[in-house]
Amino acid sequence: ENWKLKGKQQKSKDVDIVIELTGVRSAASEYADRAFASEKDFITANKELMAYEAKTKFASARKMGRNMGFEATVGGKIPIMAALRYFDGEDILSIDGIPNGSTNYVFTRMFEDGLTYDEALQLAEDRKLVEPNPDRDVQGLDARDKIIFLASLAWNTQFNPEEITPQGITGVTLDDMDIASWIGTMRRRKNRKRGPGYSIKPMVVARKQDNEEIEVWVSPALVSNDNPLSKVKNEQNSLRINTRNGTPITIEGPGAGREATTSAVMADLRRLADYRRRGIIEPLPTLDGGYRLLDPNKSKGKWYLRFSLKDVTGSIRRFGEVLERHDLSIQHSIQDEDPQSEDYKSDFVTFHPATREQVIFASEELDETGRVTGPRIVLPIVN
């Protein structure tokens, strides 16, 4: 605080390392510039800063011969940055997982305790697992900044977060969670609320394509209960790195709350203090690679669609015609009573592999038939 308030402190020989924890990108950017200009090392927990400005900050640090710590930007206590340093020079194929412990906590409480979204979010706020304004968490912006920064490091390219529109968690309901658990099973058992099929998790994916493009998406997703990510609960984070020459490595640990951030910051502080004592300057990525982001609408995979269809003759036929026009093939379908109206049925459908835009365009055309009501949701499926 003294360093912030008194400009002369910038050049003080008593200050070796500046730690920034404001949570405000503009302030973090200014403090980084002032630290490097004054030949100080710099540590930040600001993932938004690193998602947007990592290339320029790394260049400033290199120019002044200083070190930079950013372990706390992603994953809390899990050492994901150390893992990426370990894989330096490897051909990374993908990074995926759950990077936001706050939203994972909300989904866990909804699934295990039957809480509504609002009730679960209030519980997370009471435990101080989200910011006073939780919008960046629940709208997926926090997770987007994290996966964009990780992707920039993995493929040495500064990506633009604005090219990715995250899907937040606010549209997911208890019905989605109940139905997802029965998808892919022999039948839904009325005497059991949950099945062995899928869990819904707040996922991110960054995946290398064959044409020098990187697919990145941020969304709640149906995750197969055979996938270890489906078992990650509460404020835990879990991130998986998959390389061409090795088995995927998964790193898991607490990712939300003050203690997780403090642990990551202190790890950076110990490392940078040791480097300073020994005169080590750690190489920082140039982020000048030639990769580009894939258009998110071109993302291809299996999809889940929930909507309410009018319970009258011809509705199913019209639905089928829309799917045929968009070359969509149903893999699973479950129909249930619509709690909002006796005139409609709640439909839960999964599709064989297709692009996101095929499913979105089809769902928009369904609206135009006049036979669909209420909110709908489209989610990716991860096996």
SSE map:
Elements: H1 2-5, E1 17-20, H2 25-37, E2 41-44, H3 47-64, E3 68-69, H4 80-86, E4 92-98, H5 101-113, H6 117-126, H7 135-138, H8 141-154, H9 174-180, E5 198-208, E6 213-224, E7 236-243, E8 249-254, H10 258-278, E9 292-293, E10 300-310, H11 315-325, E11 330-337, E12 344-355, H12 356-368, E13 372-382
InterPro entries: ACT_dom, HDH_cat, NAD(P)-bd_dom_sf
EC number: 1.1.1.3
Family: Belongs to the homoserine dehydrogenase family.
Tally of individual domains = 3
**Average pLDDT:** 91
- Report the sheet with the most strands, covering strand number, pairing sense and barrel closure: 10 strands, mixed
The helix tally amounts to 12
Tell me the β content.
25-35%
Helix content: 25-40%
- Which runs of at least 5 residues are low in confidence (pLDDT < 50)? none
CATH class of the largest domain: Alpha Beta
CATH homologous superfamily descriptor of the largest domain:
Dihydrodipicolinate Reductase, domain 2
Number of distinct beta strands: 13
Order of helices and strands: HEHEHEHEHHHHHEEEEHEEHEEHE
Q: Structural class of the helix and strand makeup? A: alpha/beta
Under CATH, the topology of the largest domain can be stated as Dihydrodipicolinate Reductase, domain 2
The CATH architecture category of the largest domain equals 2-Layer Sandwich
Radius of gyration: 23 Å
Cα distance spanning the termini: 48 Å
Q: What general form does the structure show?
A: elongated
Family: Belongs to the homoserine dehydrogenase family.
GO molecular function: homoserine dehydrogenase activity
Protein name: homoserine dehydrogenase
Enzyme class: oxidoreductase
